[in-house]
Specification:
With 164 residues, the chain is mainly α. The chain has one domain. 41% of the residues lie in helices and 7% in strands. Helix 2 crosses helix 6.
């Protein structure tokens, strides 16, 4: 969300809503698309990735706080590990892969980003810090859960490690 808004506000990207509304030759922002429409296959694609364990925690927090999931972290991990696609799935066609944890410097990879780089405001911040902290405190990593997540997201772990 932060990168998408930053691209729209500073570099005239537009949201992807309907292919009929797109001005071809322009720049388009769409979050969470895993299949690139044929019309955009030859465009540069910017993708952000997260460290896999932080990403899994974030998914748990999102599902708990926004979607009403009422499971312990262990139950959630055991039951919903397949709910989150591997990042390698949607980085295959990416021209630029940026790490979320280093986004302020990673945007320097983009050919249109020029110094001084406009600040990237973080937008995905919890609206209710007390509830966020309560749910975050439920995250307890055991050796078994670490092994499950590592095994499931092995390609993502390797990709992330290779980008450092």
């Amino acid at each position: 969300m932060s990168l998408s808004n930053w691209l729209k506000e500073n570099f005239e990207f537009q949201d992807y809503l309907d292919l009929d509304d797109i001005q071809f030759g322009g720049t388009v922002v769409e979050r969470h698309r895993f299949v690139i429409p044929d019309e955009f296959k030859y465009h540069n694609i910017i993708t952000c990735i997260r460290e896999p364990f932080e990403r899994w925690e974030s998914f748990y927090l999102y599902q708990s706080l926004q979607m009403g999931a009422d499971l312990s972290f262990e139950e959630f991990t055991r039951q919903r590990l397949n709910w989150l696609p591997r990042q390698t799935h949607y980085t295959k066609q990416a021209t630029y892969i940026l790490r979320v944890d280093q986004l302020d410097s990673e945007v320097n990879k983009l050919p249109f980003a020029r110094y001084p780089i406009p600040e990237i405001p973080r937008l995905n911040v919890s609206q209710n810090q007390l509830e966020y902290d309560r749910v975050k405190d439920r995250i307890k990593w055991t050796d078994e859960l670490l092994a499950l997540v590592t095994d499931h997201f092995r390609e993502d772990c390797d990709m992330f490690r290779n980008l450092t």
